[in-house]
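Many introductory courses stop at the sequence. We go one step further.
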Amino acid sequence: MNRNILFGYKSIYRAISYRPRISSDLLTLLVTISFTLIYNNSLWKEVLHRYDISEASSIGIVILMFLIITSLHFVVFLLFSFYWSSKIVLTILLLVASSVSYFTSSYGVYFDTTMLDNVLQTDTSEARELLTLGLLFHLSLYFILPSIVLWRVDLKKTTWPKAMLRRLAYWLGGVAVLLLSTILSYQDVSSLMRNNKELRYLITPGNYLVSMVKVITSEAPSADTPRLSVGADAFMEPNEEAKPKLLVIVVGEAVRAANWGLNDYQRQTTPELTNLSSVINFKQVTSCGTSTAVSLPCMFSLPGRREYDKAYARQHESLLDVLKRAGLNVIWIENQSGCKGVCDRVANWKITADEYPQLCQEGRCLDEALVYELSQQISQPNPRDTVIILHQLGNHGPSYFQRYPSNFERFMPTCKTADLSQCSQEEITNSYDNAILYTDHILSQTIEMLANQSNYDASMIYLSDHGESLGEKGLYLHGIPYAIAPDEQTHIPMLWWLSPTFSQRESIDIECLNEIAENPASHDNLFHSVLGLLNVSTMIYQDELDISKPCSG
């Protein structure tokens, strides 16, 4: 064999078989540096967008930020990274950092506590959709390969006194670098973080770890814990001579106002609703949050967005409890990942593939199953006034192409994968708009069914829980912190439909309501508008938030 080839083989073998021998402290430092350099692309992209690195002062600030982030992570990780635990701890951190870096760079996700709530409440069907080839390739490059290198490192053994002294020296060195770099850059970096608070949610893996600790340590009452009463005085005057009233509330998912045909979108994505003259469309509606975990509890809670917090929702009753206490029959029908505690104390169930095999695949059911469920519920008269909530799968991303049957694929070409990075923005938008077409059909079917039944004086409210980003400014999906969320994620569609018998009974002027629909509204209006429509009396009712109040006789 040629001596050069043999030498080459030996060199490759030596390189592959080489196992560096270093201390666990140095290994932790090297991995931490790699986190800052390699796994924080989204952060550095935002930072470099704000600083001109052709200037020496800007370069200095960026270097000091690098030192702050690295040393802060290092002094924390070193507390858990011993000789016997360092490889396990660092492997877990590599998995976290690689996963977080993928979603921040690919979808523009910010890992705050709200996003972590979403992650923890994700069901298997949602998780399965996110397991794309793009994610697997990213994990191969940023987790599997670095982990192989990590586990090939031989750690130096030494006596525990020497190990403790060395660890203390590393830790004090990290603290010194952290303090010095913070002092030198305090004015610039503190100003940057104060004016751009969202940047802290891009610092990987600290963003995930801090948010996870906050979520886990937050007090969450069990399902059996009694909620604090809301509207304890709620009641309805019985009217035995009239038909029972029925209000259907359809909660949409991730539908944004910008692509809603009734809102003068360039495409007609709501052709069936447009042909219904009785539909009242609200064009200027904003959501409570940018994720289901926030918006769903918030829209059914008393405080509204400005005073809402997760602790309040967990501890207090919702609108549904008030309605139930007033004597109404309240039912929640689920076709998503859960009601986030809102429906726990009323009748509720989830659509399953066993009941609708023709409409369900891979753990997901098309929203048409909700219409069938509604039909069954209203086919037999109930002497009590009734509220039925239909929680749609709607436009839940990223697999928009799976949210509608094939005959609704009218805008083409479409994005046929959950990995949105593999599709053009046109393909993503086409799939998204096709899903809205299907929601248009579902709502029209619901209205037609309510109009044709004779057991109730019926009405319907539709509103989406939040909007969705489709690539604008490099953002996809939803969940951006509300303070910096784009309009695409907070501006949502809402429409009402009142049967002639319902509007006459409640003396609601439909022309007036159409005029009111031009005014700004929000999720905050839902609580009091429902109480007003159903004539539920309670001291907590605020008529200024009841949309129909100015139009009621």
